[in-house]
């Protein structure tokens, strides 16, 4: 295999690995449930994207034809990640999971739970 | 557009065929035939389940929107990574209610998904009257600025794409 192809695969794998690692670190470090939602939904999209593009390059270079089904995995990830995050946030609201004390506009949580429009009270 | 009875959803059929070929990672004639058969039968079975959604009126703008969102996702990842690795004490999470101008299911779903995928925000809930989108932000510095960004950067193009 060409040196440059190998190099770009390595770089992509490293970027992907770093982002997936950061997502996991975020999951462990962030203070409450709602902030924890952010780490896996975001850090994993680029992380997985990098790994999948690397796989695409490797397969195409090794087998000599274009390997595209990794694109499909990326697409499915991009469709499902926000839906999972949304369902988790919704469930947390209904379980009245407590948010971090310094969270701003906490009164919105009650309104969001009832799917009502927000009332204009301050904190 | 007149709807053919044996081909109720032409775009979906094409998409199904492409997905089938991508899944199998081949364009061999056997899979082409099998994919075509599936692409014809599945829409026939699913057509009665369809709910009417607003149509994409400006496909080119939709393409540009997709590219913009992809770039934003990369930027969002880097921003969130920095926040996650930084000190937790300085984090200022918060909830925001974003007033919506679009009300149809598909555009609102797309907007909510975009919000979830982009910088430091996750959409938590939509009010029943489809007027408000509740968003949780990882680091909320300026509430109004965040609302303005979501409205001008994502909602305005979606409104144009679906012309609603």
Chain-wise SSE layout:
The complex is a heterodimer of chains A (123) and B (164).
Chain A: H1 3-29, H2 33-36, H3 38-63, H4 69-94, H5 107-113
Chain B: H1 10-24, H2 29-46, H3 59-85, E1 94-99, H4 105-117, E2 121-126, E3 132-137, H5 143-162
Antiparallel strand pairs in B: 1-3, 2-3
Helix pairs in contact in B: 1-2, 3-5, 4-5
**What structural class do the secondary elements of chain B suggest?**
mainly alpha
The N- and C-terminal alpha carbons of chain A lie at a distance of 60 Å
How far apart the termini of chain B lie comes to: 19 Å
Please give the largest β-sheet of chain B.
3 strands, antiparallel
Please state the oligomeric state of the protein chains shown: heterodimer
Q: Quick check: average pLDDT of chain B?
A: 83
> In the residues of chain B, how many domains can be counted?
2
Individual helix count of chain B = 5
Q: How many structurally independent domains of chain A?
A: 1
How many strands in all of chain A? 0
Largest protein-protein interface: A-B, 51 and 43 residues
The general outline of chain A is elongated
Q: Identify low-pLDDT runs of chain B.
A: none
Assign a percent range to the helix content of chain B. 55-70%
Calculate Rg of chain B over CA atoms: 20 Å
Pfam families (chain A): PhaG_MnhG_YufB (PF03334)
Keywords (chain A): Membrane, Transmembrane, Transmembrane helix
Transmembrane segments (chain A): 6-27, 39-59, 71-93
Organism (chain A): Marinobacterium weihaiense
């Amino acid at each position: 295999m060409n040196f440059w192809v190998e190099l770009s695969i390595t770089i992509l794998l490293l970027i992907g690995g770093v982002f997936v690692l950061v997502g996991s670190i975020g999951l462990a470090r962030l203070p409450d449930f709602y902030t924890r939602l952010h780490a896996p939904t975001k850090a994993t999209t680029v992380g997985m994207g990098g790994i999948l593009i690397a796989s695409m390059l490797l397969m195409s270079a090794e087998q000599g034809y274009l390997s595209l089904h990794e694109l499909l995995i990326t697409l499915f990830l991009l469709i499902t990640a926000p839906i999972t995050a949304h369902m988790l946030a919704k469930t947390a609201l209904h379980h009245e999971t407590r948010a971090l004390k310094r969270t701003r506009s906490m009164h919105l949580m009650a309104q969001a739970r009832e799917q009502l429009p927000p009332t204009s009270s301050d904190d | 557009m007149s709807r053919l009875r044996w081909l109720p959803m032409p775009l979906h059929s094409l998409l199904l065929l492409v997905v089938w070929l991508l899944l199998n990672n081949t364009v061999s004639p056997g899979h082409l035939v099998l994919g075509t058969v599936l692409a014809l039968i599945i829409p026939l079975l699913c057509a009665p389940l369809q709910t009417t959604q607003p149509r994409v009126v400006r496909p080119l703008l939709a393409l540009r929107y997709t590219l913009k969102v992809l770039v934003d996702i990369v930027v969002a990842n880097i921003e969130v990574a920095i926040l996650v690795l930084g000190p937790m004490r300085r984090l200022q999470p918060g909830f925001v209610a974003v007033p919506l101008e679009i009300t149809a299911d598909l555009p609102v779903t797309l907007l909510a998904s975009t919000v979830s995928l982009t910088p430091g925000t996750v959409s938590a809930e939509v009010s029943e009257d489809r007027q408000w989108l509740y968003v949780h932000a990882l680091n909320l510095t300026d509430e109004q600025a965040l609302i303005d960004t979501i409205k001008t950067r994502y909602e305005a193009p979606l409104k144009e794409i679906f012309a609603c």
